[in-house]
Design a protein that fits this description.
It is a single chain. The N and C termini lie close together (5 Å). By secondary structure, this protein is an alpha+beta fold. The protein is elongated and about 50 Å long. β5 and β6 form a beta hairpin. A 5-stranded antiparallel sheet has the order 1-8-3-5-6, covered by helices on one side.
Length: 139
């Protein structure tokens, strides 16, 4: 059993879903692992990680419309607004999604389904630089 880890930096252009499956696949391929478990962890409280459909972009747009209805920017019920009207809503969105993902590795391939991709879900309006810890354990 062995393990390796690395920090992946991702730039966002503001709120939305950013697929980065290809970067993970490259890193896993370079690792030489055949079987194991990949863990991804985002080091932020206003962005999250999701596994979502990677074929139809309407899915991403529908998710954003759903969250916009569920967690309204500038809602007066939120006291925390130090960084603007999207500040506390971004934290709520992150709490409702995930800050870490685990994906099995089988025969050197991520065990994702046919239409699954791994996304950073940026919840802030402004562009951000996000850090994601990638950790692989296995053989």
């Amino acid at each position: 059993m062995r393990q390796c880890s690395e920090i992946l930096m991702l730039e966002t252009a503001g709120r939305g879903l950013y697929v980065f499956t290809d970067r993970i696949v490259r890193w896993v391929g370079q690792s030489g692992f055949s079987d194991g478990l990949l863990t991804l962890f985002i080091q932020h409280t206003s962005a999250s990680l999701v596994v979502q459909e990677n074929y139809d972009p309407d899915v991403q747009a529908d998710l954003e419309r759903f969250f916009a209805r569920l967690v309204k920017d500038g809602d007066p019920m939120f006291a925390h607004s130090l960084e603007g009207p999207d500040d506390m809503p971004a934290h709520v969105r992150a709490a409702l999604t995930q800050t870490q993902l685990s994906v099995p590795l089988r025969q050197g391939q991520l065990a994702l389904g046919t239409w699954q991709g791994i996304y950073l879900y940026e919840h802030r309006f402004a562009p951000q630089r996000r850090k994601i810890v990638m950790h692989l354990i296995g053989e």
